[in-house]
Every structure is written in structure tokens, then in C-alpha cells.
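Feature request, filed as a ticket because there's no other form

It would be nice if the structure record came with a short human-readable summary line next to the C-alpha cells. Right now we just get the raw output. Example of a typical job, pasted below so the devs can see what we mean:
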Amino acid sequence: MSKPYQPPLAPKNLPISDPWALFGGISPKRFMQDYWQKKPLLIRGAIPAFSMASQNGGPTLASPISYVELIQLASQEEVESRLIQSQPWRFEHGPFQKKAIPSLKKSSWTLLLQGMEAHHPAAANILSWFRFIPDARLDDLMISIAGVGGGVGPHFDSYDVFLIQMAGRRQWRISEQKDLSLNQKLPLKILQNFQCKQEWVLEPGDMLYLPPHVAHDGVALDAGCQTWSVGFRSPSFKELLQEGLWRLAESLENIPELEQKFADPKQTATTNAEQLPAELIKQLSTQLQKLKLHQIDAFLPGVTAYLSEPKQQAFFDGPSKPLNPNAFLKKLSQKHLKPSPQTRILSLGKTVYCNGEDVTRDQAPKVIAAWNTLSANKLFKASVMSDIQGSSLYEAYLAGWLIFEQ
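Raw output as currently delivered:
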């Protein structure tokens, strides 16, 4: 007999200097200092509730999300899912009909579901445990469910990952090898020459942290094996620069002075007509200096906006019966407003970006303060606020970006 584990929501103020069971009795500060992007860490009993339940003689704990629920989620268009099978290796993208997914009695298959924090509160609660790492670095929580022998083959990731065992057992083999060449004959990114250096069997409640580029291979030992993977974004500088520059170029639309036409009354006759005029170069240089486009402060808003964009699969549906501004204010004094599970919010100083947009520009001080609270705490409730109509806070509620707690 078993019952689903109910992961708690992390407290608003994380005790990052205190020892955590999640990291084997060391603090998040110590973890970041000694392990983050440096070396792997295996933590037995990272979630003590699993071992405590078995020791106390009560019902054992099961995953917060059952096989049946995961199969249902895999059938939905808004859920990014993949089915991987070996012998031979092959994979396909969802959504999937129920009959397309092997039963738990079958072996050598794995179902992967991305972005689960947007679709189940248990996954969102798990992610809240990791907010000692900047939100801008967080990607999502992926759930893997597999039959015996299921896995995705030996591979490496270009980002940090926490692998949390939630059901069944999984054997992990890892290697910090330098050879990361891939087998070009396979449809998946599987290493050509994987050489195991360490291996463990993880049981429910155990966790394995792996820095980027550590080769690893996980194989399910039990039917219904579930591994929850907390992954982190690692954008290239090229990606950040391209996206930041694109948004920086867009922001020039808000500067009327730039509508002025180039003029060169001092241009002299030239014998090098094919050359870009020195006067044009001079005036452009002056404009760039005025705009401070060569400084990081001008560039960061675009980068923050980009990193706050929701996933491509995100779908926002406004309230079926939206509250009018007065009713919205009344409810705001009674209930917490919070981001939709698919909403992303990031701050740059006191400027807040929600789903790619600056939601604090031209807003009243109380609205700006509300957004800063939402960005920091993911919750906001106010007893005194007025003139909400037309504010970005109310517009975000109408768009489904912000919702009220039930």
C-alpha cells in the first residue's frame, strides 16, 4: 500500500546558510561554492519523507504524479512529450494517444514530459526548492517514466541538472570523460565511446547533481520508474547577444529624436565617391555615444526581456468571467495574486519583465511595487490600491498571466 508524496512549497525566505537534507546536510551556499558547475554530488535521502515513511511502518510513498496522470498529460497538445524506445533506438514526439504508450509490463521504453511545473502543482513546488539559484538560469522540470530497462542512452547535457528519484529504482553510471563524440548512426544524441567511472542505484528520495558535460547513462530497474529532472538554462553568448541586440533595436522606436534625417551641409566634393562618407560615420558615432549603446546598461533590458519569455508551448487563457476593476481590487485585498504556472517573471533592478514585456514602464508606484513583490515572492496581496484600470497588473490578469489563488 502506498500514498502519493506531497512535496511542500518552499518558504519565501530560504535559509541558504543552514544545512539542508536536500544536499546531504550541507547548505545551499556550500553547495554552490563546492559543487555547482564543478563536480557531481550524490545525496542519499535528499527527500527524507520517503525513508521515514518506510521506517515508521506506514504506507510507502509513491510519486506525486501517477503513471495514469502522466499518460493523460502526454495526450495534451500543450504538453511537450517524447517517447524513446531502444532495441533498436527510436523516438517520436507527442501528443500521444493512450494506446501508443507501452504498458508498465513492457520493457525498454521511456516517456519524457517537459515543463511539468506548468501542469502540476507538485512539480511547481519541487522547483521552489531551488530558488537559491537565479530564476534566469532555471529552465524547467522534466519527468521521465519508464519500463524496466528504459533510458535515453549514454549522453551529456550542456547544462546543470538535478536528478531526483521519485518512484522505482534507476541505475546511474557517470563519467567525466573528455571524449564527447556522438554516434552519428543513431537518431538520438548517444555517446560513441561511453566509459563508466562511477555508478550507483538511486531509490525514491535520492538525488544526483551533475554539472554540464558530465557523461551519464540512467537505466530503469523497476516498472514505472520515475526520475524528476530539474534543468537549468545555459544560453550561448551568441544567443544572448542576438536577442539583446534585436530588442535594443526595437527600443529605438521610442526615441523621437532618431526620426531626424541625416544631413551633411559641410560635405565637400570627393574623388572617392565609393567610400562611406566620413561625415556619416562621425554623426553615427555621436548618436551611439548619446544612446550609450556601447554600455552594458543599455543592453541588459533586452536580455532580461528575452530570458523572461515563456516556453513556446505556453498557452494563456484569461478568466472566463473577468472581474471588473473594482471587483478585482476587492478580491486583491482578500486573495493572493500569483503568476500563472506558465508565466515567467524576472527583475532588472526595480524594472520587472513578465513574459517578455516590461510591465513596470509608465506605471504608478504602487503597481511597480506590486510587480516587484510578485517577481521576488511569486505572491501579492494588497489592501490599499486604486486606479487599477488600465494598469499592467490588471491587464496581466485579463490575459491570464496572473491568477488568483484558490
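Something like this underneath would help us a lot:
The longest helix spans residues 237-251.
The mean pLDDT is 93.
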